[in-house]
Amino acid sequence: MGSGRSSATDQLNGGDDAKAPPPAAAATLHRELDAGAQFVLKSRGSWIHCGYHLTTSIVAPPLLSLPFAFASLGWTAGVVSLVMGAVVTFYSYNLLSLVLEHHAQLGHRFLRFRDMATHILGAKWGAYYVGPIQFLVCYGAVVGSTLLGGQCMKAIYLVSSPNGNMKLYEFVIIFGGMMLILAQIPSFHSLRHINLVSLLLCLAYSSCAAAASIYIGSSSKGPRKDYSLNSDNETRIFGFFNALAIIATTFGNGIIPEIQATLAPPVKGKMLKGLCICYVVVTATFFSVAISGYWAFWFQWSLILTNFLVTASLWCPNGSF
Asked: What are the residue ranges of helices labelled H in 108-232?
């Protein structure tokens, strides 16, 4: 009985020689964990799966706002800020993964940021300070993703049926129902195939955005280009900090511990390989969209998709938009 509990504890702590615990010990272990811990405890992933998870948690539709950030920074400051954002976040995420690995070797495996906060701040602060913040972030992400998905579905619908009468809320309900179904997936590791598809879609829509920007920007009928910054000092200062906030949040990733928890032991070196995959995609998508979008549209609208709608006559012959 004692050896069974030891084996179960070893699996939780992430030892390199951990073996699957007996059924009775596993049941006891899972009763001691909450649903969030059980969701990420299935540690069977490879570094390639880790790359899928990391990429889709960073490369997201907000990258389409990067040209707007460049408009407040200019060419030099914009490119430098984007490079610095990539370097700093890559280093910090790798450092965080090393800290998590070090604590796992000491027998304290942290599956979530909340577990880290509990270890550092104590049980009460970890639960009542970090917990609400995480809930608000997750809630905002779910609401924003559902609305964005509904808007994209409606845009596709209007392309195929310009005179269609379906409303936005109907598409939001449809997309929300699809997300509700996907939310029933039992573990983070089970998302690896979906995240692979998501990674490919990220590359696809980023490539389309960059190609469309280059096409419109090189057209003689394209929008006027003026890369000078706003002459009003107050507007420039607020725009500068707003642009830095856009770049910083675009590189944000709040689930590093959860992603590392999906890796099969030993985890040494796997997170670094996953981060390398992730930042190859990040570099290809972020820089191509930011530079081509700013070059083509300068300072038109905050989202590059809005610029495409305004200039639809240049690239959409039938004027469906």
From this structure: 113-121, 123-125, 131-160, 168-182, 192-217
Peptide bond preceding 266 in cis form (omega within 30 of 0):
yes
One-letter amino acid at 261 equals A
- Residue 30 CA to residue 41 CA, distance in Å, equals 10
pLDDT score of 216: 83
The CA distance from 320 to 155, in Å, is 10
Extents of the domains making up the chain:
33-106+191-315
Give 141-154 pLDDT, tens digit per residue. 889 889 988 988 88
DSSP state of 106: T
Closest by alpha carbon to 277, among 49, 41, 33?
49
For the chain of 321 residues, list the mean pLDDT of each consecutive stretch of 10.
42 45 45 57 79 88 85 90 94 91 83 81 82 83 87 84 88 93 80 86 89 83 74 84 90 85 83 93 92 81 63 52 45
